[in-house]
Fold this protein.
Amino acid sequence: MFNLIEQPIMPVPGIPVLNYHAIDPDVDASTRNVSVSLSSFREQMEWLHKEGYKTIGQKDLKEVIVSGKKLTEKYVLITFDDGYYSLHQYALPVLSGLGFTAALFLSTSFIGNTYNQKDFGFVSHDRQLTWGEIKDLLANGWSVQSHGNRHERLNKLSPEDIKNEVTISKNSIEQNLGTKVDSFAFPYGIYTSQVITQLKAAGYQFAYSVHSGKLFPKAGRYQLPRIEINNMDTMDSFITKVTTGYTSASNARRSKIRDIIYANASVKDFIEKFTPMFGFGNH
Ligand SMILES: [Zn+2]
């Protein structure tokens, strides 16, 4: 018999890795927008703070993933992709006010520029951060990692071009900020086994996908999970995502099957070659 009522989903331990893009005070709540309104963002962060969550630092995070260090605190990792000015303008004051930090995954070729690319229509009024503004984020405890150079769909590039995307962005951040880049977030969530090979060769230790679920000790280093938060989220859906890692019980079931199949990225390559609609991506 069909069960039309969604089964409840239970909270699980592990670290919720939240994936945001831009913060926009004027975003229309009725639109499917990857920007999150400032009021929703503030409410979400205040809820995390009230519930006793702490933002995990890079050192602790590394120990959890690599050595399987047990979690003694209620941790969350807040990540922002691309590098919009609205992060400096709106996200930074909200986070700093609560003692929170975040990780920024930066696309380095756009520094200081406005967006005229089709894929960035939702932030046409925003612009990319400047290095000076990015240094402010760093000074407030943020980590700055790579999201590639030109925000390309990496499965469409030659190995040589993938290598350029991952090395140019890494070198650019390291030279401009004097920090170490060891993590990558796939643009649009798209990756292949070749992308992972190039990341390892370039010296990256970790890569973040947009596969949902929570991050557990000894998680697969190059397919770390992240949960996308967008403007369609209500406080209820946000809380479900943070506490369970998924949007619903059926989402959890599908994702767990996918995680088993995709644990080997070569198997993922093979499946996606024949079923292009299986791509799990956004920005
Ligand atoms: Zn992106």
